Amino acid sequence: MENKAQYTETEIYTLRTLKTPGTGRVLARWLMGLSAVFIILLFLPWQQNIRGTGKITAFTPANRPQSVESAIAGRIANWNIREGQFVNEGDTILTLSEIKDKYFDPDLLLRMREQLEAKEQSISSKTSKSEALRSQIRALNQAKNVKYKQAQNKLKQTRLKLTSDSVDFLAQEVRFQNFKNQYERNKKLYEAGNTTLTKFQDKESKYQEARMKIVSSENKYLQTKAEVINAEVNLAGVQAEYQDKINKAESNLNATLADMFDSQASLSKLRNEYSNMQIRNEQYQVLAPQSGYLVKAMRAGIGETIKEGEAVATIMPADPDIAVEMYVQAMDVPLISIGRKVRIEFDGWPALQFSGWPSVSVGTFGGVVQVIDFVQSKQGKFRILVTPDPDDDPWPALLRFGSGTNGWVMLDSVPLWFELWRQLNGFPPSLYMEPDEEKEKKSKSQVAPKLKVK
Which among 209, 238, 254, 311 could bridge 67 via Cys, Cβ 3.0 to 4.6 Å? Predict the structure, then answer.
């Protein structure tokens, strides 16, 4: 036991004689301090964000760079401006000359005007002819009605005469039979000697006269009957004769109308060609559609030919409403809503960006989400349009269209340890509150104000 106590005292004495180096103590203190700071930093707030890249554009499509196209084919006769020059709306960019032999005649419009006048006069003459034919048809119809009534009256009169003649013929037959009976009785009496010759001859004379009258009455009756047949034939003939004349007149009228309609179609075609030629004459001057800068000429030199619809130059509008189009991953689109704040870093502009702490960032500019596409644009990404934030510093005035940008759509704040854990696991950012859909619809329905670069 004594030996054991002696060894313990010896070891304690040895340890007391050893000293800890000063640098080790300092390093330990620094490591403990850094660990404490790191643990504290893990609980600091970190603002989640969605990163995207894009380029500068214009918010309104009409203010984006546009190609100036020629509406007709032609040969470049003269350039009126140069690249980089400012042009006002309606200024002539270049002048074209004709290359199609159909339009070589310098008096082509005058020739077409003469054709139009000749065709109009032809239509006027055919219109007058059609009116004359209509009047002729009306006159023929009236004449037919008059002639038909006359024929009807004549037929009626002839039928009445036939009735009268038939009655007279019957009366003559009765009279003839009476005189015949008297003649035969007197003949027998004369042959028997019971009457005188004078009385017999008187009866014979009356008998012969009655025979003559009945023959005459019969002939008159048959003649009237024939007249009735002729009147009926004449009635049908009047109808056929005038109907044939009317049909011929109507045929001529229809032919005239068809010719007139064909002339009217030709006149409309001529008018169309005349209007097209007038418009074509105005297309020889390629005009600036809006005020801006001519940034690029697609064609150069004099005498080069261009086709219809071919671009000849590009114009950059003078005062565009600048915006940024950013492309974000599809998994991040549901977390973005219209009105979200965005921090933007422009290419060529010095910046120091802490995405989670935008308040300490330098050289970045604020923006607001205005448009979110409903379909993917390219490579599975969705496009959003960002305009300057009116509550933040204005964007630089030297920005150029097409310049690259980096952007961060700012979301909600979370502890830093949560963000590190999310990044290590590849999880998407989280929202504590869903985007206000009603506010988003309302924002889409309203026209965004035109924002200018200051």
Answer: 311
Instruction: Give the global pTM.
Output: 0.55
Q: Give me the CATH code for the 108-282 domain, please.
A: 1.10.287.620
Place of tokens 């933040």: 392
Per-residue pLDDT tens over the stretch 123-174: 899 899 889 989 988 888 888 888 888 878 888 888 887 787 777 778 777 7
> Could you tell me the residue ranges of all domains in the chain?
1-42, 46-63+320-445, 66-98+284-316, 108-282
Q: What is the DSSP letter of 237?
A: H
Q: Are 380 and 324 in contact (CB under 8 A)?
A: no
Two domains, one topology: 46-63+320-445 and 66-98+284-316 = no
Q: How far apart are CA 323 and CA 370, in angstroms?
A: 10
Topology, domain 46-63+320-445: Elongation Factor Tu (Ef-tu); domain 3 (2.40.30)
| Average pLDDT rounded to a whole number, residues 69-91 | 87
Q: Are 59 and 323 in contact (CB under 8 A)?
A: yes
Query: What does the alpha-carbon distance between residue 296 and residue 61 come to, in Å, rounded to a whole number?
Result: 19
CA gap 375, 250 in Å, rounded: 66
pLDDT tens for residues 246-291?
899 889 989 988 998 998 998 899 889 888 888 888 888 888 888 8
Question: Strands (DSSP E) along 216-318, which ranges?
Answer: 285-287, 292-297, 305-306, 311-317
Instruction: Say if residues 338 and 372 touch (Cβ distance below 8 Å).
Output: yes
